[in-house]
Design brief:
Strand content: 35-45%
Shape: globular
Largest sheet: 7 strands, antiparallel
Strand order of the largest sheet: 1-7-6-5-4-3-2
Structural class: mainly beta
Radius of gyration: 15 Å
């Protein structure tokens, strides 16, 4: 079951920019300034948490036709985090005060009828 661990602001205090793509990334160990880029997708190694490269797992919601409820799942080592935030057509992505949850991957059987 998901456990709330705090706000996105608090979560990002432990996340820094990685080193793999220094052509456009800030210096190693700098703070995350573009939160939207972090939430919407990044390449492995662009961000680091506690010395471990982070991996962008999935992003749902937002954008044209995507709905206002948004979720991003990222992985750092064997830990998974889900960030819940909003999207509004008149305001764009709203991640101020977004909630962060520690989650675990669970496989489920799904039945389709075609």
């Amino acid at each position: 079951m998901a456990k709330r661990i705090g706000s996105i602001e608090k979560f990002l205090e432990d996340v820094v920019c990685g080193v793999q793509r220094k052509g456009w990334m800030p210096e190693e160990g700098s703070e995350v300034e573009d939160v939207c880029a972090f939430l919407l997708g990044f390449e492995d190694g662009d961000y680091v948490m506690d010395g471990v490269d982070m991996k962008h797992i999935k992003q749902d919601g937002g954008g044209e036709g995507g709905g206002e409820h948004c979720e991003t799942v990222v992985q750092a080592g064997d830990k998974y985090y889900k960030i819940v935030y909003s999207y509004y057509s008149y305001d764009g992505y709203n991640y101020k005060g977004a909630d962060v949850y520690k989650v675990v991957p669970i496989e489920r059987l799904v039945t389709f009828y075609e």
